[in-house]
Amino acid sequence: MDRGHGRSLLTVLGLGVLTCNSAVAVYRSWGDPASVAFVATAYAALLLLLRFLRGFEGARPGERGKAKAAVWALSTLLTAMFASRVAPLMPPLVGVAVWVMAAATAGGGFWAFFLSP
To answer: Is 57 within the bounds of a domain?
Structure first.
């Protein structure tokens, strides 16, 4: 299903669904600037994450440093963004657990990308 330039039909379809879903989310939250900014930032971060993941996969092992850093930073940003939206909706102890899991995920990703052999 590869169309010759490295994008499969499933990838294009997934990006189309993501774009439509983000557009609908912006439309539905148009009166709330914070929600619109959240959706726009999450959409941009996901697109950048996919771009850097593609660069990471295609790079030689010695040239993966910048792509690794970008992938980790963007995934940590998205984790923190979603935790910041979910935690306030939970009871206090569960909200703390959400933040602890988000921090553990970011720390584990850092360890896996940069510290593990």
So the answer is: yes
Q: Is residue 4 part of a domain?
A: no
Provide the number of structural domains found in the chain: 1
The DSSP result for 57-107, as a single string, is: HHS-GGG-HHHHHHHHHHHHHHHHHHHHHHGGGS-HHHHHHHHHHHHHHHH
Residue 2 included in any domain: no
Residue 116 CB burial class (10 angstroms; 0-12, 13-18, ≥19) = exposed
pLDDT in tens, the chain (117 residues): 444 556 789 989 999 999 999 999 999 999 999 999 999 999 999 999 999 998 888 888 778 888 899 999 999 999 999 999 999 999 999 999 999 999 999 999 999 989 987
Structural domain boundaries, residue 70: 9-115
Closest C-alpha to 46, from 24, 17, 66: 17
Buried b (16+ CB within 10 A) or exposed e, 65-74: eebbebbbbb
Report the predicted TM-score, pTM, of the whole model to 2 decimal places: 0.84
